[in-house]
Amino acid sequence: MLPRGQGKSSLMAAWGSYELFCGGEGATVCVVAVDEGQAGIVFNIARRMVEFDEELASRCQVFKNGW
Length: 67
Fold this sequence. Notes:
Elements: H1 8-22, H2 36-52, H3 54-59
């Protein structure tokens, strides 16, 4: 448990990205949140992480721009 503003969404985005790229063939990552807005925040952070890393960007294609 962490208070507001301590990077929980960023941590979960990084962890989800790690699992997606290192989880083996057919890895799936589900983002579960209280509402669509929070899930969109985590998705957008993960999307930006992938976009800014050349190697990760070459390994995947993002189909959705968030919520």
